[in-house]
Design a protein that fits this description.
By secondary structure, the chain is α+β, with helices and mostly antiparallel strands. It is built from 18 helices and 24 strands. The two termini are about 35 Å apart.
Length: about 675
């Protein structure tokens, strides 16, 4: 292990012989004069060509970022859905992210002998540069880590916190006593939305626990890209253009994200972020303290305190974050939420303050009472086939029941206890059977009621959630990471400092602290973490004695409150319907929160609009159906058998710019 502030060691050298070297050794061993006695020749398999961390093409392979034909990092317009994406297989290690350059950074760490935690650090630093609209060092994260040596799953909580000076009306009143108007220009764009960031502190904690490469070395890929520049991707260009009017209010955002023509950076233009490179250099040298203390911390506090737009002088309500809030932030190790599915698998997710793990576990626990295998998609193709009416109905109804409990009961358990003091009551098999009995096979329930889990006087206020990104990693030793990381909405709070976006995570709190039914579990409180829907997930085989067996699956997604739906359909697709990693990922996004509306992703090529037979069938069962495009960004890794050997299979969501890389074999 290396102290984060130390830069003395580097990533271990690669331990591979090139094909040329193998051939040379073989020729030497077989060499000899004409008089050499004949010896029996033992047939050997032809050498396997390694295309580690490269993308295979019809003509061979191509390096990510090379700009050569077939380079997945070459900028192109965001299409909404990329047809024909195939699963990628690798022998020992794999990384899936929502951006090719981030996948390359993580894969190179694994290729050089680093582990899954090392790769996660490198990936996050690159994502904060190339996908600033979704995550970064100014945001927060949740991560599950599976240690192959011990079999233990640890949940790491890097969720942002409210400042110590926040009140329960922090998001709805400028001042509880003197000014009960709303923050200006709105809660999201004001300083009130910005929570104390936690992603870097969380990654540092995990790296201290499990990292093998030097902390400092893991920042090199992002620093190099930030210093030398990279072509702006379609999604980044679109996000910047969509936020143009809001970014103009912040001086650093305007200086960073607008080109010489006064427009946000366009597709394919070379983008350099020198301030970000400098900030990363400080964190590489000084660890998370460099962000949470000192000049970077002061810059964050100053930015949160901004009170006027630089473009038109309009007022901006400042936040109340202090240097003490930043210095006092702690990432936390928590117990993962692990449950049994169909007596065959152990499914692990994040505990509160994320609701994702509990909601996915409840959904699966309810679905375990139905024979989903008979409702698998039809006409299965590379895109995952066509979901059946009953399959979508059952998953959507299970989602509704899970969301109802999540909305009422789940918040930061350091402040608001779950019913009975733990999640056991919400995942009790008898309780989930009772919830499953509420599902009709002929009619949608529309809106579900929360279950009766005791006298818990809590009100319910719906909260809108937005953006994020997801990373799945498995290393050569079998360690696995499922990491979901975010700045909340696209481009966060629109406040930028030192080349990175500050989150608007506090808008994940309920702005209204009480209802007629009592205090809202997810209300704002000082130093509290807002509830999340992020659902990084790890799945394992279940041994005959009930213990956790071998790693089976890593998955997760961005998508705000709909993350729970995306993860549920992906897990069911792989485990119940036998889809490969790419098919389960690509499959039509469908599900429901606790409303009468069922989502069916209309961007998918296998859905033909409001008159699609799937939509018509759901409507006949009482569903209100939305065919709006879905914005998942699922990243999935499955352990499979390939030619009688363990292998990895990966899928990246075709709705984003994701890429699977590993020690793929040609």
């Amino acid at each position: 292990m290396v102290n984060p502030s130390s830069g003395a060691s580097t990533l271990p050298p690669m331990r591979f012989l090139s094909i040329a070297a193998v051939v040379a050794l073989t020729l030497t061993a077989c060499g000899g004069g004409d008089d050499a006695p004949a010896t029996p020749v033992t047939p050997v398999d032809p050498p396997v060509v390694s295309t580690a961390c490269e993308v295979t093409t019809a003509d061979g392979s191509v390096t990510v970022g090379s700009g050569l034909p077939g380079d997945p990092a070459a900028p192109e317009l965001a299409s909404g859905y990329r047809v024909g994406t195939k699963a990628v297989k690798a022998r020992e290690y794999m990384v899936v992210t929502a951006n090719p350059l981030a996948s390359k950074a993580g894969c190179e760490v694994l290729k050089s002998g680093g582990n899954a935690i090392d790769a996660a650090v490198a990936v996050q630093m690159v994502l904060g540069l190339v996908e600033p609209q979704s995550s970064g060092i100014g945001g927060g994260a949740f991560m599950l880590y599976h240690d192959a040596a011990t079999g233990k799953v640890t949940a790491y909580d890097g969720r942002e916190t409210a400042p110590a000076a926040a009140t329960e009306n922090y998001l709805r009143y400028i001042d509880d006593a003197t000014d009960t108007t709303t923050p200006k220009p709105n809660a999201r764009s004001s300083g009130r939305s910005i929570g104390v960031p936690g992603a870097v502190r969380m990654l540092e904690l995990a790296h201290k626990d499990h990292g093998s490469a030097a902390w400092k070395a893991l920042f090199n890929p992002a620093i190099s890209l930030a210093s030398n520049g990279f072509p702006v991707s379609g999604r980044m260009a679109s996000a910047l253009a969509g936020a143009e009017s809001s970014l103009k209010h912040d001086a650093e955002a305007a200086a960073l994200y607008f080109n010489a023509q006064g427009k946000t950076w366009q597709l394919g233009e070379k983008f350099v972020n020198a301030p970000y490179a400098s900030a990363l250099g400080k964190i590489a040298e000084g660890g998370a303290d460099a962000l949470h203390k000192g000049e970077l911390a002061q810059a964050i506090v100053d930015k949160v305190a901004s009170n006027a737009s630089v473009s038109d002088g309009s007022p901006i309500t400042p936040g109340k974050m202090t240097l003490a809030d930043l210095a006092g932030y702690e990432a936390k190790r928590r117990e993962a939420v692990c449950t049994t599915y169909r007596a065959t698998y152990r499914v692990c997710g994040m505990p509160p303050p994320s609701s994702g793990g509990l909601a996915v576990a409840q959904s699966l626990g309810i679905l375990g009472h139905f024979n989903l295998a008979q409702y698998k998609p039809t006409a299965i193709d590379l895109e995952g086939g066509k979901p059946t009416v009953m399959g979508v109905h059952l998953l959507s109804e299970a989602n509704r029941l899970a969301y109802a409990d999540r909305d009422k009961y789940v918040a930061d358990t350091d402040f608001v206890s779950l019913p009975g003091g733990s999640w056991a009551s919400m995942l009790n098999p008898d309780y989930l059977r009772q919830r499953a009995d509420l599902i009709s096979l002929t009619q949608s329930m529309g809106v579900a009621k929360a279950g009766d889990l005791g006298a818990v006087p809590l009100g319910v206020v719906p909260v809108k959630e937005d953006g994020t990104t997801h990373v799945s990693i498995v290393d050569a030793k079998g360690n696995a990471v499922s990491l979901t990381t975010t700045v909340e909405a696209g481009m966060g709070s629109y406040h930028v400092t030192n080349g990175f976006v500050l989150n608007n995570q506090l808008t994940d709190f309920a702005a209204t602290p009480t209802t007629a039914d009592g205090p809202v579990a997810n209300r704002v409180q000082p130093l509290k973490r807002p509830r999340s829907s992020m659902a990084p997930t790890l799945v394992f085989d279940l041994n005959a004695d009930g213990s956790t067996g071998a790693f089976k699956m890593a998955t997760g997604s961005p998508g705000g409150a709909t993350i729970i739906q995306y993860v549920t359909k992906t897990v069911v697709g792989a485990l119940d319907w036998g889809l490969d990693a790419q098919q389960a990922t690509s499959m039509v996004d469908f599900g429901a929160s606790n409303s009468a509306t069922t989502n069916v992703g209309g961007e998918h090529p296998n859905i033909s609009g409001a008159d699609d037979p799937l939509v018509v069938g759901l409507k006949a069962m009482g569903h209100t159906v939305s065919v709006n495009a879905q914005s998942s960004g699922i990243g999935t890794i499955l352990r499979i058998q390939d030619a009688g050997k363990d292998a990895l299979e990966g899928g990246a969501d075709p709705r984003r710019e994701g890429l699977v890389l590993g020690d793929t074999l040609k």
